[in-house]
Amino acid sequence: MKHRIIYIVILLSMTFAFDIYARQDDFPVLTGPYLGQKPPGMTPEIFAPGIISTTNSEHGTATFSPKGDEVFWATIFSNPFRKKILYSKIVDGQWTRPQIASFSHGYNEGNPTFSPDGTKLFFASWKKLTENEKPKHHIMYSQKTEGGWSEPQLVDEIINSISRYWQVSVASNGNIYIEVEFNGPEIFCSEYKNHRCEEPYKIDLGFPAGTPFISSDESYIIFSAADRPEGYGEIDLYISYKKEDGKWTEGKNLGRNINSKEIDVWPIVSPDGKYLFFTSRRDGIQDIFWVSAQFIEELRPKR
User: Fold this and answer.
1) Which residues pair with 288 in a beta bridge?
2) From CA 51, how far away is CA 281, in angstroms rounded?
3) Average of pLDDT values for 135-149?
4) Which domain does 242 fall in, by range?
5) For the segment 169-210, what is each residue's pLDDT rounded down to a tens digit?
6) Number of compact structural domains in the chain
């Protein structure tokens, strides 16, 4: 319950301004990988301060395309309150100013994440599909086309029949991992077989867990967990590895160097495997941080 309340507080306790860059010529010239930002080491740093991590609160970690030429994230705005998905991409060798994604139509959309092949962009949307339906979370996706991104579409109903989601992550084989909430946060997997999603089932990581990022080969999963005795803050990041029998090792805390005394959630590893992106309130506002992903191999169980 506390885990869920914390997330709601993140959404409702802050108000923020709109886009700080009115035109492209107001925007700094940014070239090179990761918006030309200096890569971090083993200590987390704010990603693209004043550009992506602004005075707004971010409600979705930076997710990069496999080619590294597009990035999406989610930001909370006020007047009126709304959560929107933003993006920047490389045009003529330069990153464009942040803009609202063409498929971000509603007032409450967040947690975007690329499929490993870059052809789909998944996200969570709070909406009602019919006049008689109460608003609820749905997992949506937009398809990459020659002309840009398609109108949003619903993921299979067998997944969207669940009532609440906080993050979605997809493996190369199409298996979908989501956080849902029944009596607290849990991570479910829906296997993709014969061009359809199978009934989701809960995966056992040793304790309640949420906000999953699954590696493309499903060899490891990074997630968040609250109120753990070994934890360093309100919500910490953990990693678990898939064993030969298909089960998961008990989640291991990523440690004091990455976690803080505040809320650390929504992990995504860059497509090249070099960096972990996540959001944190360690500086008093929900910003996007990045750090070397070297820990993934360092913590991997030795065979």
Assistant:
1) 279
2) 17
3) 88
4) 2-299
5) 999 999 999 998 777 789 999 999 998 999 999 999 999 999
6) 1
Lowest-pLDDT range, 10-14, 177-181, 278-282?
10-14
Element (H, E) at 295: helix 295-299
Cβ neighbours of residue 146 closer than 8 Å, sequence gap 6 or more: none
Beta strands 165-170; 176-181: pairing state: antiparallel
User: What is the domain-level CATH number for residue 211?
Assistant: 2.120.10.30
Rounded CA-CA distance 169/280 in Å is 19
CA-based end-to-end distance of the chain: 37
Structure tokens at 244: 């030969």
Residue range 204-226: mean pLDDT, rounded: 96
Rg for the chain, CA atoms, rounded? 18
Can you read off the two tokens belonging to residue 40? 């971090």
Distances (CA, A) of 166 to 5, 19, 184, 291: 13, 25, 12, 22
Provide the token pair at 25.
Answer: 């010529």
